[in-house]
Amino acid sequence: MAAAETPDETTVGLGGHPADAAVETIHRELTAFARRARASAGRMHPELSLVSYTLLGHLEERDGLRATDLAAHYALDKSTVSRQVSALERAGLIERRVDPDDQRVQVLHLTEAGRHILGQVTESRRAAFRERLAGWPAQDLIRFAAYLERYNAWPGGEPDRAAPRDTYGGRGTH
Amino acid sequence: MAAAETPDETTVGLGGHPADAAVETIHRELTAFARRARASAGRMHPELSLVSYTLLGHLEERDGLRATDLAAHYALDKSTVSRQVSALERAGLIERRVDPDDQRVQVLHLTEAGRHILGQVTESRRAAFRERLAGWPAQDLIRFAAYLERYNAWPGGEPDRAAPRDTYGGRGTH
DNA sequence: CTTGCTGGTTGCACAATACAACTCCGCTAC
DNA sequence: GTAGCGGAGTTGTATTGTGCAACCAGCAAG
């Protein structure tokens, strides 16, 4: 799957090639998707914003993360995460516990309620996705999923813990 | 989390099958992407927010759209579009002209400045995407692009003009 | 002309976010 | 030890995108 070869920038680097158009399309479609994701997510579950949902989902996968981890993972400011986490805690969906090894650190855990809500939301979100993907051949689904994973896994894209994240030239104003 | 999988497989596949996992992955990855798109876009081009960029891009493709069209297309509230359009106009990137056939309607056009800026932003955004997609075989790029298009083209998803948008049925009075 | 619909704008509220200043804590150097 | 540095979180402040509701302005029927 790696397809590490194809070093030929020629494939993706030159204007006018089908591949170039593809990049353009990917760019546009992904952006369009992003534009809507938030809106629809909000409509579906007023209870859980897209952010909250995402954070919660992340916690479900890896219990015991620190706020900083989440911030790094999503390229969010710590303050944002802090507030989101506070909200989540206030809502009783997660718990913050001080790491015995390092008093500065707060380890985050999903509560039962959190797990429950997350389950519901995931279920209905998944249903929507499934509906949307109905009719797709399994083969395509698998490939699509793989592409997305590959895309998101780009180094610098998801600096999971201790990551440089110079992807975007650091602090911007690029 | 594919634990309690309700096997309504008729849709995309059979519970617990690779296809189902794929849907799950698509769901997760797409969401993760959405979470970041905005942030990175903002960092890259303070000049043009993701929304503005998107709207502008849309106008480039189809000159002479109405604000309502954009709203429907992106599932945004008309007020939001109205404000964005105003901003864009204030910035001299687009022009609003009254439709001679219907005085209520404002037809939107890109100005030269708008086209120019859009070109720049598109170029650098494309560069980023291209960098990220470098090394992908052309075949994969094309397929990926096609998948995304197919995904976004879902009937309820992009109600171009006259949109029922009952996709997400519930009007979560937020 | 009155009613009703559609496109658009404005007032208001709110959520998400960034940035900066600050507190706490742990670690290292003196 | 104490001082100072750096990392984790929190809080203050401002900005932006957003939706909803109320509103105004044309068009189309009756």
UniProtKB/TrEMBL annotation, chains A, B:
<keyword id="KW-0238">DNA-binding</keyword>
<dbReference type="GO" id="GO:0003677">
    <property type="term" value="F:DNA binding"/>
</dbReference>
<dbReference type="InterPro" id="IPR011991">
    <property type="entry name" value="ArsR-like_HTH"/>
</dbReference>
<feature type="domain" description="HTH marR-type">
    <location>
        <begin position="23"/>
        <end position="153"/>
    </location>
</feature>
<dbReference type="InterPro" id="IPR036388">
    <property type="entry name" value="WH-like_DNA-bd_sf"/>
</dbReference>
<dbReference type="GO" id="GO:0006950">
    <property type="term" value="P:response to stress"/>
</dbReference>
<dbReference type="GO" id="GO:0003700">
    <property type="term" value="F:DNA-binding transcription factor activity"/>
</dbReference>
<keyword id="KW-0805">Transcription regulation</keyword>
<dbReference type="InterPro" id="IPR039422">
    <property type="entry name" value="MarR/SlyA-like"/>
</dbReference>
<dbReference type="InterPro" id="IPR023187">
    <property type="entry name" value="Tscrpt_reg_MarR-type_CS"/>
</dbReference>
<dbReference type="InterPro" id="IPR036390">
    <property type="entry name" value="WH_DNA-bd_sf"/>
</dbReference>
<protein>
    <submittedName>
        <fullName>Winged helix-turn-helix transcriptional regulator</fullName>
    </submittedName>
</protein>
<keyword id="KW-0804">Transcription</keyword>
<dbReference type="Pfam" id="PF01047">
    <property type="entry name" value="MarR"/>
</dbReference>
<dbReference type="InterPro" id="IPR000835">
    <property type="entry name" value="HTH_MarR-typ"/>
</dbReference>
<feature type="region of interest" description="Disordered">
    <location>
        <begin position="155"/>
        <end position="174"/>
    </location>
</feature>
